[in-house]
Write a structure and sequence with these properties.
5-stranded antiparallel beta sheet; 466 residues; Tachylectin-2, Chain A; disordered N terminus; 23 strands; mainly beta
Length: 466
């Protein structure tokens, strides 16, 4: 729900301390009310867009008394053993090929593939150990690809044309889940056969089969630097889990209800099965902390790798819309540029929870529209746009620009589930999954949901039920 404050339509972000207490293991989030007859939603998310390779979404926090939607953090996907090799590319003119390799004018060798025995790369072509080949790159007969290395969801240098291929005989469906399912803004990643999920309030879950989920210990508490930077922060919102640079990265947000004075933090960990998280001890980015007048909200982070392997962070909710900033390989911010990539200027700015992944020549940006956190009355719905570069421009399948409210519908509520959103994407091998929350129409409970994510022959995600 939106409210009008000094002539500007704003979305209010819920107070997490009231909404997320007791969230670990079995999170059942409700919404409190505030303002003149408006209800407040549950806190913002990151989009495990989520994460690299996957994903994070943003919950905006507008004027007093407005309602806010909850957005999700995207999930970090993984790249399996060995770099993936796309088809169609050839080495550059003048390069000699390995046994059986073909040459072609102007081609370049994709990053990451190692040439076949005795082969050399063509002029300008580069190789590197451990990476996956870029779109179109091929190696000659006998050439080997590099081994090992996981990537975050959306972050492999492979172009993933074999991921989520639509099969009319086996249409996408929502999975039947059991166990600890209370969640807002879920973000998930697979590591060594175990699935790890993180959610608003910094709760956590694990699963070994994707369908049965168990509550897990919170990764860590609210760091002192966050409470000093944003007065009133009591817990952390919409975490985004990803893997890049040989490390797991968990981005999270801190804010307070009805304010876009917010910060995004960052913790790292070498393994999800052992050891502990190390908080970096500083903000990756803030809004209205050291500056004033930022018309965006530094919440709902989601990490994504571009085709060159460079990490970026997508963020934002309501206000001026969704933004993107560049990161380095440690996950720290590069420069000061903040680029707008999606907005709803004619609809009160009602979009958030951005999560971006890259597949088969396109970057796909998923967002949650309208309002969450009102139980069975929630109107959240999931939308998608795409573009050919990580910073856009993006548009929906009708050609409407994302900065002008474009967004193709992929999921909305039905008679059983209301307000699907707070989404992220998890990639596991050649499978892709939407990870999100929805509200049970029977009792309004916010519940973890997973559904198959597939793309049709024209490269657009196929709609799936809530």
């Amino acid at each position: 729900m939106t409210i009008t404050a000094t002539g500007a339509t704003r979305r209010a972000r819920p107070a997490r301390s009231r909404l997320v207490s007791g969230m670990l293991g079995a999170l059942l989030l409700g919404c409190s009310t505030s303002g003149s007859g408006t209800s407040q939603g549950t806190g913002g998310s990151t989009s495990s867009g989520g994460s690299i390779g996957g994903s994070t979404a943003t919950g905006g926090a507008p004027g007093t008394g407005g309602s806010s939607a909850t957005s999700s953090v995207g999930t970090g996907g993984t790249m399996g053993t060995g770099g993936a090799i796309a088809t169609g590319g050839t080495p550059g003119s003048g390069g000699s090929t390995a046994t059986g390799g073909a040459t072609g004018t102007g081609g370049t060798v994709a990053s990451g593939g190692s040439p076949a025995t005795g082969g050399t790369k063509g002029t300008g072509g580069t190789t590197s150990t451990g990476g996956a080949k870029a779109t179109g790159g091929t190696v000659g007969t006998g050439g080997a690809t590099a081994t090992g290395g996981a990537t975050a969801t959306g972050g492999s240098t492979s172009d993933r044309c074999d991921v989520g291929v639509y099969d009319p005989a086996n249409p996408p469906k929502a999975l039947t889940l059991s166990g600890s399912l209370g969640a807002h803004d879920p973000s998930a990643i697979e590591s060594n056969g175990t699935y790890y999920e993180f959610q608003t309030g910094l709760g956590a879950k694990t699963s070994t089969n994707l369908t049965t989920w168990n509550g897990a210990s919170a990764p860590f508490g609210t760091p002192a630097w966050m409470t000093a930077a944003v007065t009133g922060v009591t817990d952390l919102w919409a975490p985004d889990i990803s893997f890049f640079g040989g490390t797991y990265h968990l981005y999270y947000a801190g804010s307070t209800f009805g304010s876009n004075k917010s910060c995004i933090g960052h913790a790292t960990r070498a393994s999800l099965s052992s050891g502990s998280w190390t908080d970096q001890g500083y903000a990756t980015i803030c809004s209205n902390i050291t500056t004033t007048g930022d018309n965006w909200n530094a919440i709902d982070p989601n990490a994504i790798l571009d085709t060159d392997g460079n990490p970026w962070l997508v963020l934002g909710s309501f206000w001026g819309g969704i933004k993107i900033i560049q990161l380095d390989q440690t996950g720290a911010r590069v420069g000061t540029t903040v680029t707008g990539i999606a907005a709803r200027p004619s609809n009160g700015g009602a979009l958030e929870g951005p999560f971006m992944i890259r597949r088969c020549g396109y970057y796909y940006l998923f967002t949650s529209w309208d309002t969450c956190c009102k139980g069975a009355s929630s109107t959240y719905n999931m939308r998608v746009v795409r573009g050919t570069t990580v910073t856009g421009p993006f548009a929906d399948n009708a050609g409407t620009a994302a900065m002008q409210g474009g967004g193709t519908l992929i999921a909305k509520g039905d008679a059983t589930w209301a307000g699907p959103g707070g989404q992220s994407v998890m990639l596991v091998g050649t499978k892709a999954y939407l990870v999100y929350h929805a509200y049970a129409m029977s009792n309004g409970t916010a519940t973890l949901r997973l559904a198959d994510l597939v793309w049709d022959s024209s490269g657009w995600p196929v709609p799936v039920g809530p």
